[in-house]
Amino acid sequence: MTDITAHTPYGTLPAAAPLPPRRPISLPRLHEMRERGEKIAMLTAYDATFAAVADAAGVDCLLVGDSLGMVCQGRPSTVGVSLQDMCYHTESVVRGLRRVQGTVWVIGDLPFGSYQESREQAVRSAAALMQAGAHMVKLEGGGWTVETVRFLVERGIPVCGHLGLTPQTVHALGGYRVQGRNDAQAQQLRRDALALQDAGATMLVLEMVPAALAAEITAQLPRCHTIGIGSGNGTAGQVLVMHDMLGIHLGKTPKFVRNFMEGAASVRDAMAAYVAAVKAGTFPDNAMHAW
Ligand code: KIV
Question: For 95-133, how does the pLDDT look when each residue is reduced to its tens digit (9 = 90+)?
Fold first, then answer.
């Protein structure tokens, strides 16, 4: 009998040529990378085909971000994204990865309203994302979230924090702007980052934080790997929203983004160029992409 999945006409699955072999990315491998000074390259992904191409391009981690509210659903912010939406996109990404080599570490974003009510609600929501195929969940903010992070980690759920510009609270922050510019804000960021590491978070997105502060926080967190976006090149890794780095938008490119499609022959080449630039430390360039 013919295996119809081997002849799927739409998308890019399965790979036409053998992919370079790669050991699956796991938490111990991420720790090893950090120890030998290898930067972690992360992108967002929302569907099967782009996830598979990112895996083939050598991306280490894929974040199924609630930025899908903007780039996939056309919303003005991430606030309207539901847990059901996140599970749907996580399942799609993971199916795509399984059909290629499936070596990427997958992070599922807990959307607004899915973890704020109680630690028990956070466990239920995190379990739904893990059952959809995520290896780790991400939640935004410091302060009260620290005890939620501890509760999740104690129950075997790897957690990524998110400090600086936290898009789910954009209305409280008053807009998409750089965070941690004054002493009080910077002190609060340092305290929150240390508390998240103590609670067991093993990864921490730092979004739109001044480069010097992000580098200083990174040095203070040996067990929690900082992933910068708009936070300079001193973090343990980088993340960009996939559509931004492929130049798929009609607006102005944000200051912290480079369009890797420029000069690339394919999306896979653009993603591979991103991975190479992150690993070499040539992206981001603090003089151009940071504050
Ligand atoms: O939702 C998302 O894509 C994110 C990244 C911008 C870090 O949180």
Answer: 999 888 889 999 999 999 999 999 999 999 999 999 999
pLDDT digits (tens, 9 = 90+) for 155-167: 999 999 999 999 9
Q: What pTM did the predictor assign?
A: 0.96
Terminal Cα-to-Cα distance of the chain (whole angstroms): 59
Q: How far apart are CA 214 and CA 88, in angstroms?
A: 33
Looking from the CA of residue 167, the nearest atom of ligand 1 is 8
Report the 3 state secondary structure along 150-166.
Answer: HHHHHCCCCEEEEEECC
Distance CA 101, CA 80 (A): 33
Ligand 1: residue whose CA is nearest its atom 8: 65
Q: Which residues are marked as active site? A: 207
The Cα–Cα gap between 64 and 51 comes to: 10
With the most atoms of ligand 1 within 8 angstroms of its CB, the residue from 40, 46, 61, 63 to mutate is 63
Residues near 162 by beta carbon (within 8 Å), at least 6 away in sequence: 138, 139, 140, 141, 204, 205, 207
Whose CA is closest to atom 1 on ligand 1?
65
Residue appearing with tokens 């910068």: 228
Residue 118's CB is within 10 A of a number of other CB atoms, namely 11
Q: Among 194, 195, 246, which residue's Cα sits nearest to residue 220?
A: 194
* Cα 195 to Cα 8: distance, rounded to the nearest angstrom: 48
In the predicted model, what is the mean pLDDT of the chain? 95
290 pLDDT above the threshold of 70: yes
